[in-house]
Design goal:
Immunoglobulin-like; 5-stranded antiparallel sheet
């Protein structure tokens, strides 16, 4: 092709929480066929804004002849990447540096089966360098029976070059009503696949919007809190006032792990004169406000017993301590920490236990890095003690609490054993419980 000219309107879709204002789009990049990773594509020059419309010519030098995919994505001012828009095109090896951009003169479409370029049903267009607006397809010459169809659409420029074919899904109801004015769009809905199959027209999750004949620049929030890490497809479609549905738009997005606000280094408890002392340390903190020390007795209800100011944001090791003067004796006592962020969100640490007869909790093992791949995980003692040579019981649990394995292992073999157990597990959140002569402790791991 002589030139591959792309007109893009981009906006970053917010997938984590409700925002009062969208951050500006600050970067756009593209790549052919194989994803080099976010931030490693070819940059497109843009002017930053909450919505970006730009025209650019991808550099196809060195690209082999034949069909390829052009992939385009945008990043906002918070460093989050939007979904990747995918365009399929045919590269015929001609110069990619045109003297001028030719006008688009004609278009065509087909249902289900591609008859070849120039042989599909025509689309009448007003010659222009770029085309925008509503596209009406005349199906009268095809006489399709009512049902769902795959529609392919493409356009040809003044030099005889065709664009890539864009595909969508349409529903034919067998009734054509000539309209002088397009009807209002009255419903927009979405569903996520492969999380669930298409629930049917009108049964997917509705999107709030103002009724109008044309809806553009619509931003809406999709709740992905229940999704596991991985790639998904957002399926979006609209219905007009006459009950007709648009084709379903398919957009891919990736659910990734959020950085943990606190990287726990150690948590322990020990009986001292005047009660019990809770000790903890962190390897890093991000936007932390304070810690609340919680206690329960004999597996009863949790109660707040103290509070300590956090570091805010820190990459240095921080150590904390709290004295519990009311710690009961002769009972099993559990402690945990509630870490509260500056924005009010919170999460809990693993718990440590002081058994009725114990003077010190186990609480002296550190799990790092976190998140990590199975081959990177380390589970090691912070220091040597009299009971450190005794075997430990290692239990690995899934996010739902199901026991995946329970083994007796020596402290020296903890890391190797854990790596072997996790090697065949899927990415996600896991709980690791260690039990030994001095008590028990619980760690959480986000496996990548």
């Amino acid at each position: 092709m002589r030139a591959l000219l792309i007109l893009l309107t981009l906006a970053v879709l917010c997938l984590r929480g409700t925002l009062t204002a969208q951050p500006n789009i600050t970067a756009v990049e593209y790549f052919f066929d194989t994803d080099p990773g976010a931030g490693n594509g070819t940059a497109v020059t843009i002017s930053a804004g909450p919505q970006v419309t730009t025209t650019f010519t991808p550099n196809t030098a060195g690209l082999s002849f034949g069909f390829h995919t052009l992939n385009v994505r945008a990043r906002d001012a918070d460093g989050k990447w939007g979904h990747t828009s995918i365009y399929r095109f045919h590269h015929n090896g001609l110069s990619t540096q045109p003297v001028s951009t030719p006008q688009i003169l004609a278009g065509e479409f087909f249902l289900n089966t591609d008859p070849g370029h120039g042989a599909a049903s025509p689309i009448t267009v007003t010659p222009a360098v770029t085309l925008t607006g509503t596209l009406n397809l005349d199906l009268s010459g095809l006489s399709p029976t009512p049902g769902l169809y795959t529609v392919g659409i493409r356009f040809r420029d003044a030099n005889g070059n065709w664009t890539g074919t864009r595909f969508g899904i349409i529903r034919v109801e067998g009734l054509t009503v000539p309209l002088s004015t397009p009807p209002d769009i009255t419903r927009i809905e979405y569903f996520i696949s492969p999380l669930a199959p298409d629930p049917g027209l009108g049964l997917a999750m509705g999107v709030p919007f103002a009724t109008a004949t044309t809806v553009s620049g619509l931003n809406f929030t999709v709740d992905v809190s229940s999704l596991a890490l991985g790639s998904y497809i957002l399926n979006t479609r609209a219905q007009d006032a006459n009950g007709r549905w648009s084709m379903t738009q398919l957009d891919t997005f990736l659910v990734e792990a959020s950085p943990l606000p606190v990287t726990w280094l150690a948590l322990s408890a020990q009986r001292v004169a005047g009660g019990a002392e809770v000790l903890w340390s962190t390897a890093s903190e991000v936007n932390t406000d304070y810690f609340v020390v919680e206690r329960r007795v004999n597996a009863g209800a949790w109660a707040d017993i103290g509070r300590a100011a956090a570091a805010g944001t820190s990459t240095a090791t921080r150590r904390y301590a709290h004295l519990d003067p009311d710690a009961p004796t002769g009972a099993d006592v559990d402690y945990r920490l509630r870490q509260v962020d500056l924005d009010g969100r919170y999460s809990h640490s693993p718990l440590v236990r002081l058994d009725a007869q114990a003077t010190q909790s186990l609480g002296r093992y550190v799990l790092y890095p976190n998140p990590a791949e199975a081959s990177q995980v380390q589970l090691v003692a912070l220091g040597a003690g009299p009971a450190d040579a005794a075997p430990l019981t290692l239990t690995v649990l899934s996010a739902s609490g199901a026991t995946l394995t329970r083994l007796r292992v020596s402290p020296a073999q903890l890391t190797a054993t854990l790596r072997a157990v996790l090697a065949n597990q899927a990415t996600g959140l896991y709980a690791l419980r260690l039990e030994g002569p001095q008590g028990a402790e619980l760690h959480r791991l986000l496996l990548r």
